[in-house]
Amino acid sequence: MRGNKIMKKVYVDEAHCLGCHLCEYNCAFANSGLDDMVTALKDRAIFPYIRVEGDGKISYAVSCRHCDDPICVRSCIAGAMQKREDGTVRVDKSKCVGCLTCVLVCPYGAVVPGPDGLAGKCELCLANSCGSPACVRGCPNRAIVYEER
How far apart (Å, rounded) are the C-alpha atoms in residues 80 and 50? Predict the structure, then answer.
């Protein structure tokens, strides 16, 4: 977010989260580059950029908050983590050296190592063909929303 510009972000209402993990599967599929969910996910480790946490009584999803002043961007030694003009924080995989400092410094645990050993994080499905975050579309209880606040 630059100046007074408000951007859409993913928000979670833990009161409505069932802890079903469908957001994780939809995210992993959307970012797999494959056209078939079974081929993309069955009998494979998944690497979602959203993660369901909880204690059995309360569940909630953790994903990138696209911070105003992201420490992951400031700590990236290769310049791979970038704050874009639209307010999103994205990873330039061609620059990432796999040091994973961004994973260590993210206060929300939202930057994760990907299957390629490089940093990965929620980019709001802007780089794939989804058009809107797959986790939001796949949440059966509408606990995850994509909106301006």
Answer: 20
